[in-house]
Amino acid sequence: MSARPPLAAGLAACLATCLALPPAAQAQIRNAPSPRALEFAAYIFAAANVCGYRIGTEEFDALLEKQNVRAADVSPRGPFGGRVQTMFALMSNQMQLNREQACIAVAGEYGPEGSISKNVLRPAPPAENPAAENPAAGAPPSEAKPAQ
Predict the structure, then answer these.
(1) CB atoms < 10 A from the CB of 15, how many?
(2) pTM for the whole thing?
(3) In terms of residue numbers, what domain contains 89?
(4) In sequence order, what E strands does the chain have?
(5) pLDDT score recorded for residue 31
(6) Structural domain count of the chain
């Protein structure tokens, strides 16, 4: 009677399962992003939110890739989006307390002339005609339709 130790049987079962999986399923199993990568993503999202910057997608993706993270992983609907959203909320609230200085600091780090990386955050294009976006806002009160 040959009795296998429980550990050896468990390892054999795990190995058999892993070898039976198709390569696509094996590729989906990955490690979680580092805390630094999650903080970086939250910082960039918070800066875009508080300061009104646009995110330079190519530059942002390149910086995430250096940390072995994909943008889809840290997006709000990604597998680590919940963690990023929690950090984003905290960072946004803190930046909002001292908005002017926070926006200057983040622009110096990741703006068009950033000291850490250039063009990750870009200034938002100026609104050419705010009345064109919302016609009711540009209409005089006398011409506005009455509420029914």
Answers:
(1) 10
(2) 0.67
(3) 35-124
(4) 54-55, 121-122
(5) 83
(6) 1
